[in-house]
UniProtKB/TrEMBL annotation:
Membrane topology: Multi-pass membrane protein
Domain annotation ABC transmembrane type-1: ranges: 92-297
TM segment ranges: 27-53, 88-115, 127-147, 159-180, 200-227, 281-300
Annotated keywords: Cell membrane, Membrane, Transmembrane, Transmembrane helix, Transport
Subcellular location: Cell membrane
Family of the protein in this entry: Belongs to the binding-protein-dependent transport system permease family.
Pfam families: BPD_transp_1
Key word Transport present: yes
Protein name: Carbohydrate ABC transporter permease
Domain of life assignment: Bacteria
Length: 315
């Protein structure tokens, strides 16, 4: 009996394309890694450049200009700033306290307000949503806010004058409300209530743990706002014996340095004016004000993930 010839197995078109894609995927991975690496380096390079300028000798900077690797290093800028002594450490402590307390207060107010607006069962959510959105379009202004803080609340020259003006952000409320609506299904809350959990138990035990990415984002924005704030200290701190926050203290040091430089030039003492580390001090201030908050980013990075509720509702 004649045997039939066995035909070679044909590879389907989709599988052939998939194999071809897998064959070139390592090249694309290398290319994408290079692009992302260059982008990351372009973000880090300005900060590294500022650090190098802050460590440059002032006269070398005036003669040679800005360079990534100066011919002469100097720590005169940091020495000039640290002449403030204990005031700098106390100012750093004030800023850290304001940032921590203010961020916790902001997260408490924003999450509770936004969670109420995100629930369909809340009867007045439309009114309070409009109330939050209206403050984004029209604010009371600086003068009414100053009168409220000083005349009605009597919080002038207190740490609460640095915390309360930034504690409730309408933008953060809108963002967090949207996050709750898209991340926390109503079925999850209903199942928790069926199991006997109350509104607060469901909020603290279920809603908050699965909303960590949104909470971390709002917390990071809030911490940046408190850390970089100096304007409220300018408004509400008028006693010389009070140590201001770090940003306001650095600004005061810069103003004193500019005052000394102008007086030295006015009196004709150009050597003394040239000896003051004006440009390098500004760069050193940027480093001191930015480095602590930059070091906090890795702790928030792991929360910036999506899809934590995938699979939470089976169906």
């Amino acid at each position: 009996m004649a045997q039939t010839a066995v035909k070679p197995r044909e590879i389907p078109e989709k599988k052939r394309k998939k194999r071809d894609y897998n064959a070139i995927s390592p090249l694309w991975n290398v290319l994408f890694n290079i692009i992302v690496g260059l982008f990351a380096f372009s973000c880090i390079f300005p900060f590294l450049f500022v650090i190098m300028i802050s460590l440059t000798d002032e006269q070398t900077l005036a003669l040679e200009g800005f360079s990534l690797w100066p011919s002469r290093f100097s720590t005169a800028a940091y020495s000039y700033i640290f002449r403030a002594g204990s005031d700098l450490l106390v100012s750093f402590g004030v800023t850290l306290s304001v940032t921590v307390i203010g961020t916790l207060l902001t997260l408490t107010l924003v999450t509770t307000y936004a969670y109420a607006l995100s629930r369909r069962s809340f009867e007045f959510r439309g009114f309070f949503s409009f109330l939050a959105f209206f403050t984004m379009l029209f604010s009371g202004g600086m003068v009414p806010g100053y009168i409220v803080m000083t005349q009605f609340l009597h919080l002038q020259n207190t740490i609460w004058a640095l915390i309360l003006p930034l504690s409730l952000s309408a933008f953060s409320i809108i963002v967090m409300r949207t996050f709750f609506q898209t991340t926390v299904p109503d079925e999850v809350i209903e199942s928790a209530k069926i199991d006997g959990a109350g509104e607060f138990r469901a909020f603290f035990s279920i809603v908050l743990p699965i909303s960590l990415p949104g909470i971390a984002t709002i917390g990071l924005f809030s911490a940046l706002g408190y850390w970089n704030d100096w304007f409220n200290a300018l408004l509400y701190y008028n006693k010389p014996e009070l140590t201001p926050p770090l940003q306001y203290l650095l600004m005061r040091i810069e103003k004193n340095m500019d005052f000394l430089t102008q007086n030295a030039q006015y009196l004709g003492n150009f050597d003394a004016a040239a000896g003051l580390p004006t440009e390098t001090v500004r760069m050193a201030m940027v480093v001191l004000a930015t480095l602590p908050i930059v070091m906090a980013y890795p702790f928030f990075q792991r929360y910036f993930v999506q899809g934590l509720t995938v699979g939470s509702v089976k169906g």
